[in-house]
Design brief:
The chain is α+β, with helices and mostly antiparallel strands and 422 residues long. The chain contains 15 helices and 16 strands. It has two domains: 245 residues, Bira Bifunctional Protein, Domain 2 (BirA Bifunctional Protein, domain 2, 2-Layer Sandwich); 88 residues, 3-Layer(aba) Sandwich (Rossmann fold). The protein has an eight-stranded mixed β-sheet. Strands 13-12-14-15-16 form a five-stranded mixed β-sheet, sandwiched between helices. Strands 2-4-3 form a three-stranded antiparallel β-sheet. Helix 1 runs antiparallel to helix 5 and helix 5 runs parallel beside helix 9. The two termini are 48 Å apart. The chain binds histidyl-adenosine monophosphate (HAM). The site of histidyl-adenosine monophosphate has 26 residues, from strand 6, strand 10, strand 11 and helix 11.
Length: 422
């Protein structure tokens, strides 16, 4: 136990970190192209925020939250997602008085007590955006286009954008009644969860993963076929807007999403390459959440991408991420005097922005050169007593294997020039 990370968590090791930096940086770049600014949030929030925001009858709240009492007796929960926290911050910080719309993006860890499998973890990472204050369908189109541009910028192909509308509270009231009638003669044979949901939130039953329940749900009426005229018009404008900019989509009437705050447009980007957990990204509109959490009536829309799934998808598509180059120079030494000179040189080089790895192990020259090679150093320079005396040393080009005597006074300028020319 002591030497094993908790189930469902994973370390991101130095060999993998370049991939993470790469996608995080691209995401931040694309977000800022659309006018989004980053927000950082606490890892835990008051439990009530998620109960109310995500919804009491959702799997997340019923089964998956990491909830604990702190020493002051407060019930706190590790965030299972980012939207509720951003909404809390929007209200707390009076963002409705900022120029509207408010556009925020985030890069977070999230926590859900779920059954482990490929692409499904208990601690995972999300890159997401939330857009507040815009109710127009063009906001939906813009948010989706941001995601598409991000996937394109990474070279990801063939993700399917599945789109649906789950209407507004009014459409849902009528639909829930219809669903209840449809399930009336089936519900007694369905799972305990479904039986618990039939009166509290019938639509949530569509989310059930139990094989037996799924068979009963096969012919359930679709919400999209039963939305009101306003919601239909909104949805048509979204699909039209996507067509106008050439973003392909498929309408999937089965998408209801696993969180209660959604209304109208909901969407998921799905991969066929990475197994059963193929939903790389999910999101939608939530026009009543801010009010529900105690803020002014404000429409909202956003999405979150699962970074682990995104990286799995990139790997399965053979997308190479440029890895960071090795150090500009490896500085080795033999003897105390030489080491002191190296220390000074390393300081000067690093101060000028040159990546320099200096020997700190006191190893043999052969071992030092082997290490420089392993690090992928562009150049290597070994200093001994002679070099200290003459202030000259042999600079080895690790790519060509060629060595050239240089004055140590010119080392920094040379390296800067060489780096520019490489
Ligand atoms: P979500 O669909 O629950 O939506 O999660 C978004 C994405 O996070 C999923 O598509 C998936 O890639 C990833 N994800 C979810 N659970 C796990 C897990 N256990 N392991 C690995 N990856 C996972 C939300 O979280 C909403 N807050 C999205 C949103 C933002 N809607 C509006 N704004």
């Amino acid at each position: 136990m002591l030497t094993q990370a908790p189930k469902g968590t994973h370390d991101i090791l130095p060999d993998e970190i370049d991939k993470w930096y790469y996608v995080e940086k691209k995401f931040a770049e694309i977000c800022s192209r659309f006018g989004y600014r980053e927000i950082r949030l606490p890892v835990f929030e008051h439990t009530e925020l998620f109960q109310r925001g995500v919804g009491e009858t959702t799997d997340i709240v019923q089964k998956e939250m990491y909830t604990f009492e702190d020493k002051g007796g407060r019930s706190l929960t590790l965030r299972p997602e980012g939207t509720a926290g951003v909404v809390r911050s929007y209200i707390e910080n009076g963002m409705s008085s900022w120029p509207q719309p408010t556009k925020l993006f985030y890069n977070i860890t999230a926590y859900r007590y779920e059954k482990m499998q490929k692409g499904r973890y208990r601690e995972f990472h999300q890159l997401g955006v939330e857009l507040f204050g815009a109710k127009d369908p063009s906001a939906d189109v813009e948010v989706i286009s941001l995601m598409v541009l991000f996937f394109n910028s990474l070279g990801i192909k063939n993700l399917t954008l599945n789109l649906n509308s789950i209407g507004c509270a009014e459409c849902r009231k009528a639909y829930n009644q219809m669903l209840k009638e449809f399930l009336a003669d089936k519900i007694d044979n369905m799972c305990e969860n479904c039986r618990g949901r039939i009166n509290r939130n019938p639509m949530r039953i569509l989310d059930c993963k139990e094989e037996g329940c799924r068979t009963y749900l096969k012919d359930a009426p679709s919400l999209l076929d039963n939305i009101c005229d306003d919601c239909r018009e909104h949805f048509e404008k979204v699909t039209q807007g996507l067509q106008d900019i050439g973003i392909p989509y498929e309408i999937d009437k089965a998408i209801v999403r696993g969180l209660d705050y959604y209304n109208r447009t909901v969407f998921e980007f799905v991969s066929r390459n990475i197994g059963t957990q193929g939903t790389v990204c999910g999101g939608g509109r939530y026009d009543t959440l801010i009010e529900l959490c105690g803020g002014p009536p404000t429409p909202g829309i956003g999405f979150a991408i699962g970074v682990e799934r995104l990286l799995l998808e990139m790997e399965s598509q053979g997308i190479q991420i440029p890895s960071r180059p090795g150090p500009d120079i490896y500085l080795g030494s033999i003897g105390e005097q030489a080491d002191r000179l190296c220390e000074r040189l390393a300081w000067d080089l690093r101060s000028k922005g040159i990546t320099c790895i200096k020997d700190i192990m006191g190893r043999s020259v052969k071992a030092q050169m082997k290490y420089a090679d392993k690090l992928g150093a562009r150049y290597a320079l070994i200093i001994g007593d002679n070099e200290v005396e003459s202030n000259k040393a042999s600079l080895k080009d690790m790519k060509t294997g060629e060595s050239r005597d240089i004055s140590l006074d010119t080392l920094i300028d040379r390296l800067i020039k060489k780096r520019e020319n490489d």
